[in-house]
Amino acid sequence: MNEGIDLGRSFAQLLGGLGVPEEIGRILWLPLPMLVIIVSVLTGVIATVWAERKWSGMMQQRYGPTIIGLGGSIQGAADGVKLLLKEDITPVKADPLLFVMGPIVVSIPVFFAYLVIPFGQGLVLSDITIGVFFVIAISSIAPIGALMAGYASNNKYALLGGLRAAAQSISYEIPLALSVLAIVMMSNSLSTIDIVAQQTPLGILSWNIWRQPIGFVIFLISALAETERAPFDLPEAESELVAGHHTEYSGMKFALFYLAEYANLILASLWASLLFLGGWGFPVPLEAIAGLIGVEVTSPGFQVFAALVGISMTILKATFFIFLAILARWTLPRVRIDQLLDLGWKFLLPVALFNLLLTAALKIAFPGFFGG
Q1: pLDDT-flagged residues of the chain (< 70)
Q2: pTM metric for this prediction
């Protein structure tokens, strides 16, 4: 287990230097992780929405947003304010409690999943030993919220959308978990920091994508389906279900669904970069570069540089996966519901099981290369 950095203790010690007792410092630290996550995720969602609109515009030979902010950069924030100011309507025959709980249950779990996402060596808000299991478990809560929203709306299109969301999530959660389990088997740990650290010794040559090409493809397809992105956006297919389980929602409740969709996309992209592309790792080990230029790896300047490079690499790799998702949206046609379920149960699940068994066999046969 890689202990990393205890950010809570570091914060308490920092305040201790100012005369604040360590116990008080730890109490003051408690709400800060969620505050950091909320601000960071909101910023990431605004940036992702802007990037998607710009990239989509380029693919369609148009400009995208250009007016609000520099190059339309705060168009997403303006849309959020607009939704916040809109009237919040609840249908007369809707279930009031479930109608309110639906968007909350969909959006809240994704924020907790960010607690175990590392952006650098020790730069993680909560390095729990079961980080991988935690993300998979908490991500399975969101479909319950979609089903609640569809049922509570008392609308046939919303109910069908909620049922589709639940069926789709169940169908692709299992292959996704099996592809991640193969990575866990090679790294001998459920800690996200340990999984990335296992990919750093040889730089790009150590990345899991080379040892898990089948798992990478399974993860990529399953993650697109789990985030309900095109071509797997069946729960809200406009031509079939109006807007799916979003149909009866307006104002801030609708904004929560919108926020959860993009927060999930960013989470899946970060997850892919950590599991398969070495996370914060630079393609060439920074220690080797430091040795060539004669810089001590323990020097404060190098440590700060390594941290900045790590954060930049994590974000850059995640951006690559976000671009792939946007590219898939504008190049692939939407699949039918029977095709979607067949792909999950009849193809991805058997292939994921085969990949897991193959990884176990290779781990025994080549322990040095597959983490024996």
Answers
A1: 1-10, 239, 372
A2: 0.91
